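// run 5 | inverse folding | seed 20
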């Protein structure tokens, strides 16, 4: 394992809140020296998703074996037989590149990472304008059935209640404002005062 122990940036939110858009934006900012933590999942790939790029797609039996072998930093059964998690080797891979880790994960996983690395982690909850707006965004994706969307909406109500447990909350009512807020949080946590002042 590398001697470099970078910071961890956790972005969590209900599906459709815009956290992925924010994370992709931050990854493009070279000054933050970030690498995306690819989650593992037991579900099948959707659309054009690629193994090792979007997710590590692991079948259910192997996923459960890895849980027993304590190979995950965090994991959760999000829906029945539908597991997601972060492999310990993934964080080691990124630290070996001497980069900071950025996560786009479920709220339960996000809070578990914060608990394991309390001093190194900045946990950010991305809050959508409303649950109704979430439903509109999820429908626009056209990637899931009505039943799946309804399951996500029901889960969102529970997830929204966890927001106060995160270090910071970004209200994603206006994407440009949310992106600037995310950049400022990164600058503060990495102590990049110059980068913050330059943009103002």
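// decoded
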């Amino acid at each position: 394992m590398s001697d470099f122990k970078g910071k961890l940036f956790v972005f969590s939110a209900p599906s459709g809140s815009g956290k992925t858009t924010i994370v992709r934006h931050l990854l493009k900012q070279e000054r933050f020296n970030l690498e995306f933590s690819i989650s593992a999942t037991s579900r099948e790939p959707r659309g054009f998703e690629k193994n090792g790029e979007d997710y590590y797609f692991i079948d259910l039996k192997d996923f459960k074996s890895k849980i027993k072998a304590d190979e995950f930093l965090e994991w959760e059964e999000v829906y029945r037989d539908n597991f997601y998690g972060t492999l310990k080797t993934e964080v080691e891979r990124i630290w070996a590149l001497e980069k900071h880790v950025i996560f786009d994960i479920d709220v339960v996983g996000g809070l578990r990472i914060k608990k394991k690395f309390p001093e190194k982690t900045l946990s950010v909850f991305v809050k959508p304008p409303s649950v109704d707006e979430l439903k509109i965004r999820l429908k626009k994706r056209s990637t899931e059935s009505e039943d799946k969307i309804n399951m996500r909406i029901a889960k969102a109500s529970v997830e929204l209640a966890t927001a106060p447990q995160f270090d910071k909350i970004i209200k994603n009512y206006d994407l440009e404002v949310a992106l600037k807020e995310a950049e400022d949080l990164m600058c503060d946590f990495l102590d990049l005062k110059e980068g913050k002042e330059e943009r103002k």
